[in-house]
Amino acid sequence: MTDQAKLERRYRRLLAWYPRAFRRENEQEMLAVLMSCARDGQRRPGLAGSANLIRNGLRMRLFPSVPRSARSVRAAVRLMYAGAGVSAVNLIILLVFIGDAAIYHSLPGYHLSAAQVSDLNVNAQFIALAIVSDVVPIAVWLWMAQANGRGRNWARSLSTALFGLATLDLTGAFGTPGIRVVLVPMLFGATIPVLTWLVGLTTLWELWRPASTAFFKPHGLTQAGYDAQVSSRTGRSGSRFPRQF
Amino acid sequence: MTDRAMQEATFMILTALADRSQHGYGIIADVEEISGRRVRLRPGTLYTALDRLRADELIGVDREEIVDGRLRRYYSLTPAGAKRLAAEAARLQAHATIALARLNLAGGVTQ
Questions:
Q1: Which of A35, A52, A68 sits opposite B55 (nearest CB)?
Q2: pTM of structure
Q3: Is B45 near chain A, with CB under 8 Å?
Q4: pLDDT tens digits, A80-94
Q5: CA of A240: how far to CAs of A19, A109, A169, B51, in Å?
Q6: Mutant choice from A10, A33, A232 vs B, greatest count of B C-beta within 10 A
Q7: Domains of chain B by start residue, with CATH
Q8: With B69 labelled, which of A97, A216, B2, B49 sits at a CA distance of 20 to 30 A?
Q9: Residues A17 and A136 in one domain
């Protein structure tokens, strides 16, 4: 294998950090530019160049480019990132206070003895579960932002269903609210949960506005039909959006 | 609502496309020249910016060619892109004019 072929193969591996739909449309062109920028005899991508490709690939995966014409969807995606931010604040508060034994004595619905509180504090499993239960919402916000930003109709429906579940959870419909739900409001009032809920509500409002509906691929539409619709709407190939699965 | 200030890389890319369509490597080379070799775009940065600019409908694909077995895609400014670039250039010019005028008032520019 020639040096050039080896370099191209390595660049191709680095391009795997980009979303599949983006690669389908741009990989050949990017490879051509990367190879043009390479020095004579270069066999490996440089460290800074590799880091740049990985960073931009991840950025594109996390922050999809929503067409300017779909303003309401752009707003919804930004709100979802804000939701992830609020959930992250919740997680930080949890991490700071979860080891504080005194707090558990006063939690409503948790009439714990000193021994039980002590058990909780040393119970790594419990702490891990509480942390995971706070990391999951962050991941879900980011996932929904990415999928909705790419025009996936199922993501819009799933976002709606998740908001419904979150509303029921917050109101205690599933029994005693989890320690995650109770601990932070005990310390800081209802600000963070209510703020998170409001972000979710506003996001749904943006997602279901008539202006947003045109952006989402309807169920049952073939990829070819969708591509034609996107192409006529944005003047660019619909293939940049991944196939619905 | 006013548009936010444009990032330098975005401004340079749009400037490179202001008078003609160009392919990816051509944009990188042109931006380097425009900036007096101060800005050298990496391909990863360029294509992230191009993707966003296409989504914002500020640039579009003009044509595609195969050269030496490799795809070459030419990009050009859309009317919206030309308008946005003109607005940004005017904004920068206005700021630069004020800065230079104040420096002159303060006793001239020293190098």
A1: A68
A2: 0.67
A3: yes
A4: 999 999 888 878 877
A5: 9, 50, 37, 10
A6: A33
A7: 8-105 (1.10.10.10)
A8: B49
A9: no
